[in-house]
Amino acid sequence: MDQLLNLLRHNARTSLEDLARELALTPQEVAQHIDELERNGVILGYQAIVDAEKRAANFVTAVVEVRITPERGGGFDRLANRIARFDEVQSCYLMSGGYDLLVVVEGSTLQKIAHFISEKLSTIKGVIGTATRFRLKTYKENGVSLTHVEKAQRLAVTP
Asked: Domains in the chain and their CATH numbers?
């Protein structure tokens, strides 16, 4: 069912009939597969991809690199789960390399994100450092291009 997942990731609003046609199944079979994927926790939810520049309410997105001290008996998981529960946190990933967690944070202003990082995130026991970068512009989100690429116009050739 990887093909079904790929189709749903591309457009979760595709009708059962269109999915069935693409997969050479009946709409009922597709619905059963989707129900099974949801029951088994493979599909956790459905979301819209939003163009931040066209969104009515302004908001700021930051990517925070977080270095933490792993806990005995819990490793990174307990602390990462604690951080992920904050409302400001949109995503939280365990990473390899120079930092441990990559945390995507959203807020209505730059100051609110700064306050979250300095007053909530950085004060958690086990957090030993953060580095914050702010999103300036989005070109692609979850596989969807957010930019219009204009076709190159050929210049007229003159003698």
From this structure: 2-39 (1.10.10), 60-136 (3.30.70.920)
